[in-house]
Structure to design on (319 residues):
């Protein structure tokens, strides 16, 4: 080969140099796509659907709810990305459909579905719930297959309780101090009222009466300073969301304080029993013996007073 021929550029016989640049880029992209297909396999039809394009539950809702008898119970179900699907509430124990959408599908009209336009929340409301309504309820979405989320409802009976005996004996001039608890109340009561008979004590005009209510601890105290026999009566504690409780208070002149703290002792019970069962006036010696028995019982004398009480009752019956 001469020097001339060496310096002359060689001509490409394949014709590849005539391929435009954009065609090279297109071929390169096709080769890359084929490589991806070979590595990852065929792309499924729903590949471009994101996981959140389907309905799903927002787990921020409380799944266990405690309600009080007579107070409406609310179960909150939050469904994101619902689209055109329907939300239903099902009672798990018998698989009874309660609501579909906002329509009630049961004859028990205490069940109602609450929903605001544009909201993700579907609430099952049970008005005046009873203990028999306790159980599991499912929030169900009509996807294929269906998805559901369970909620546990506990319906309890909230009762008030006054600490101490059901009958109290207070010495005249002493203070009456009553404490009431709202038992098993899922939420603090909005108010706790005290009554003497039918009269509200919270706003009594009598001086020396003080009511201290602590909603956080669900307690209320009724304090009556320097009680007199006129303060005797039936006292009732009535929280807003609980059944009421009552106590009978006797304010007595001249009684021994220790004896009055044992209002449910055998001797005092004996007096009440004799008073209600005897058809004749009680003899004075019998009354004196019963009062003496109360004093000895208060002094912690360890005797079998039940035998004495039985004997006195027999004497009264024979008379």
């Amino acid at each position: 080969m001469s020097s001339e021929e060496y310096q002359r550029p060689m001509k490409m016989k394949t014709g590849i140099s005539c391929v435009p640049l954009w065609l090279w880029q297109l071929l390169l992209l096709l080769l890359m796509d084929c490589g991806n297909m070979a590595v990852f396999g065929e792309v499924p039809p729903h590949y471009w659907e994101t996981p959140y394009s389907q309905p799903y539950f927002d787990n921020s809702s409380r799944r266990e709810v405690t309600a009080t008898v007579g107070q409406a119970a609310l179960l909150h179900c939050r469904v994101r990305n619902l689209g055109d699907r329907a939300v239903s509430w099902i009672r798990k124990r018998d698989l009874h459909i309660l609501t579909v959408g906002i329509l009630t599908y049961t004859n028990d009209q205490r069940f109602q579905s609450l929903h605001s336009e544009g909201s993700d929340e579907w609430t099952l409301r049970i008005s005046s719930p009873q203990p028999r309504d306790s159980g599991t309820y499912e929030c169900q979405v009509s996807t294929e297959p269906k998805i559901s989320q369970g909620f546990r409802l506990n319906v309890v009976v909230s009762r008030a309780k006054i600490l101490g005996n059901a009958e109290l004996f207070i010495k005249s001039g002493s203070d009456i101090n009553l404490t009431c608890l709202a038992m098993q109340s899922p939420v603090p009561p909005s108010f706790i009222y005290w009554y003497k008979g039918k009269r509200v004590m919270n706003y009594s005009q009598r001086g020396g009466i003080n009511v201290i209510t602590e909603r956080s601890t669900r307690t209320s105290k009724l304090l009556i300073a320097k009680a007199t026999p006129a303060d005797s009566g039936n006292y009732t504690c009535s929280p807003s969301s609980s059944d009421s409780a009552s106590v009978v208070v006797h304010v007595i002149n001249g009684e021994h304080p220790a004896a009055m703290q044992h209002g449910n002792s055998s001797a005092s019970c004996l007096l009440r029993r004799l008073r209600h069962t005897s058809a004749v006036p009680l003899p004075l010696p019998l009354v004196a013996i019963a009062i003496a028995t109360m004093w000895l019982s208060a002094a912690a004398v360890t005797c079998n007073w039940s035998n004495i009480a039985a004997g006195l009752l027999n004497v009264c019956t024979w008379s």
Observations:
- The chain has a mean pLDDT of 76.
- The chain has six helices and 19 strands.
